[in-house]
Specification:
single chain, mainly alpha
């Protein structure tokens, strides 16, 4: 079996750099989507379990909402979405993205 070295095949470096760049972009998109879901969970709660409470709040009311508060509402859909966000965070933390100086690593 003939294995090419990096010096003999610089395309390996280019492919790896492109892979890492694309992986980083995908992870960024997943994190952005998770942030958008997270931002909308309270609005969802205000259309469901918190509907009556929300009607009583003056415009401009500021409230700090935690995941624990949302989980305790008893809305199965919100709980499932929070579990999804937990899994996204866990998965994103396990994905290995190499630093941008990959060419130096192979020299």
């Amino acid at each position: 079996m003939n294995v090419a070295t990096l010096e003999e095949n610089p395309q390996i470096i280019n492919e790896y750099v492109q892979y890492q760049k694309t992986l980083s972009q995908v992870v960024d998109k997943v994190i952005n989507a998770a942030n958008e879901i997270s931002d909308n969970l309270f609005n969802l709660a205000c259309q469901g379990k918190l509907k009556e409470w929300d009607k009583k709040q003056p415009v401009g009311t500021i409230i700090h909402v935690t995941d624990k508060m949302l989980r305790n509402l008893g809305d199965k859909n919100i709980v499932l979405l929070l579990e999804l966000l937990d899994k996204i965070e866990e998965t994103a933390g396990e994905i290995i993205i190499k630093p941008s100086g990959l060419r130096k690593m192979f020299s």
